[in-house]
User: Fold this.
Amino acid sequence: MNQHVTEQQLILHYYGEAREEDVAPHLEGCEACRGQYRALQRVLNAADALTVPEPGAQFEAAVWRRLEASLPKPALAERLRGWLGWQQWAAATAMAGMLVVAFYAGRHSQQPELEPMRQGAVASRMLLSAVGNHFDRSQMILAELANEPEAPMDEVRDLLDANRLYRASAGQAGELAIAETLDELERLLVEVAHQTPNEELRQRILDQGIILKMRLAGAQVREREKIEY
Amino acid sequence: MQETEAAAIARARTGDGEAFRLLVEKHSRSVFRLGFRLTGNQHDAEDVVQETFLRAYRMLDRYDGRASFHTWIYRIASNYSLDLLRGRKRMEQRKDEDQLPVVETVAADEPGVDRLVYSTQVRERLTAAMEDLSEQERAAFVLRHYEGLSIDQIGETLGLADSATKNSIFRAVQKLRRALEPVMGAAR
Assistant:
């Protein structure tokens, strides 16, 4: 084969997918193509520099714990009850109830005119109330994380699980500002849940001002509750 | 091992949670890695893991065993990751390539080069270049380069013809070369 090999052939050759009879013999005899191939190799080898953080030893167990609660099973309620503390359970139940109410309010509009509106208001109020409590609890746990030597890791993981529920519910309810705040909290909680908090992380919690954000978000939600309901 | 997995799939289809747990434990770490490579962050990667297995559980009846369970799970994870990327793209302004930090061209083997600075530059360029790939290019490249799937398997995973799969990989590699070669010294 006298013609030089193409870049595409070199890429396939790198990944072992080229027709080797077309590429390998040519590379042996052609310094120009060998140079091209070396340049390609350098770039693709450099791509290995992008590493993935290795999840902790309990990763699989944590995935299953969260997943099991979401799987459609008759025993789901019992499992969830053990999985969340009673307060989160009550709030999560309220949230589920809210979604059901909101759903039916939208679907069954043969009800008297005022009924769907009233049901929608109840659902929104339940959301605000549950999320307000969640912000308060987050504020306390974050303060503990930033200031106490012993991190409440079980509480952090529970908080993360509950946060996922609330973020999804807020998004579905069109409460985008709340969903965004919960998203920011979730990013931090994911990080905390996967490492033992150290001085750097504690400092970052303080520097980010997330405790203050939780306090403000909680206050705003309560203010809305008062004004709107 | 393969028999064990087939048995677990069969039992999971009947609603056996413990059997499904075996599958989750076996594949969740690799799904996390794939999710991280595709989305570029841990938060989304964890979402990918949860959603992938939730969808897998719901669709278990549709798994026909033609592809390996691993490939099937990867297909679900890739599709969900691509959805996330598309959603993110709609929400965020794309990073302009011009915003990349201006760096001096250095050769890796040049004497006196600070290797740490060099590898930081490479990593930064690489991260930015990966973000600049289209969803399809990124998925095809990640599955080929990092996950070691063959062109056939990638096509099957992403629902692409061989030629489209290859072209996605070619374009991805070309973009990475354009981004990296300036900091890696003369190409040839």
Summary: The CA atoms of residues 149 and 198 of chain A lie 9 Å apart.
